[in-house]
Write a structure and sequence with these properties.
The structure holds 2 protein chains of 2 kinds. In chain A, β8 and β9 form a beta hairpin. By secondary structure, chain A is mainly β. In chain A, the strands form 3 sheets. In chain A, strands 2, 5, 6, 10, 11 and 12 form a 6-stranded mixed beta sheet that branches. Chain A has a 4-stranded antiparallel beta sheet with strand order 3-9-8-7, with no helix packed on it. In chain A, strands 1-4 form a two-stranded antiparallel sheet. Chain A is globular and about 45 Å long. Chain B is mostly beta strands. In chain B, 0% of the residues lie in helices and 53% in strands. In chain B, the strands form 2 sheets. In chain B, strands 2, 4, 5, 6, 9, 10 and 11 form a 7-stranded mixed beta sheet that branches. A 4-stranded antiparallel beta sheet of chain B has the order 1-3-8-7, with no helix packed on it. The radius of gyration of chain B is 14 Å and the shape is globular. Chain B has no helices and 11 strands. Classes of the chains: A mainly beta, B mainly beta.
Chain lengths: 114, 118
């Protein structure tokens, strides 16, 4: 069965500092991995995805994520946080052999202080 | 980029009435659309997968007679909450995937519909 764990309910970081939002996953086969961001009362916006190839994936708004197969992790990172990055972040996984069904993590709320 | 719209964005209805929510892919054809439900401060719960021209596939525990899904065209799926009750109050989000058939395709999400049943 597929599952996604986001171990931190909340991450606090000062503006200008690097940020990391953690994600680990479990799938029976090979994974497709996604990060989405959600602002209050809005749908989810796609940030980036890992399909194959380079383990470091670059996405929207300066975000990047590194796929680590041995640790089954896909942590989201940004070198310098902005106050406007404050939002709810979801990691999601899809089994390559399992069609389009996507499992979402519980979400991590990011607070960036000015 | 790919845009998905939902209508209405917010709806208040009386208990016992039915509510229809539309999900449209505006600039791409979506053979597959998904309906999610999100409770406050929680993650998305997949309710059903909607395929154009065929019956929706519901997740375990989701009542298909209560949450009617119709995927009438490659750009439109509707979710009808029948005989709504206060416990159906929630944030409903749809998503759509371009029809390449590649399971690595990105899901694009609508802005969500806030349903309040009084």
């Amino acid at each position: 069965a597929q599952s996604v764990a986001q171990p931190e309910d909340q991450v606090n970081v000062a503006e200008g500092n690097p940020l990391t939002v953690k994600c680990t996953y479990s799938v029976s086969g090979n994974p497709y991995l996604f990060w989405y961001v959600q602002y209050p009362n809005r749908g989810l916006q796609f940030l980036l995805k890992y399909i194959t190839g380079d383990n470091l994936v670059k996405g929207s708004y300066g975000f990047e994520a590194e796929f680590n197969k041995s640790q089954t992790s896909f942590h989201l990172k940004k070198p310098s946080a902005l106050v406007s990055d404050s939002a709810l972040y979801f990691c999601a996984v899809r089994d390559k052999a399992g069609g389009f069904k996507t499992i979402f993590g519980a979400g991590t709320r990011l607070f960036v202080k000015a | 980029g790919a845009v998905v719209s939902q209508h209405p964005s917010r709806v208040i209805c009386k208990s016992g009435t039915s509510v229809k929510i539309e999900c449209r892919s505006l600039d791409f054809q979506a053979t597959t659309m998904f309906w999610y439900r999100q409770f406050p401060k929680q993650s998305l719960m997949l309710m059903a997968t909607s395929n154009e021209g065929s019956k929706a596939t519901y997740e375990q525990g989701v009542e298909k007679d209560k949450f009617l899904i119709n995927h009438a065209s490659l750009t439109l799926s509707t979710l009808t909450v029948t005989s709504a009750h206060p416990e159906d109050s929630s944030f409903y989000i749809c998503s759509a995937t371009p029809g390449s058939g590649d399971s690595g395709e990105t899901q694009y999400f609508g802005p969500g519909t806030r349903l309040l049943v009084l």
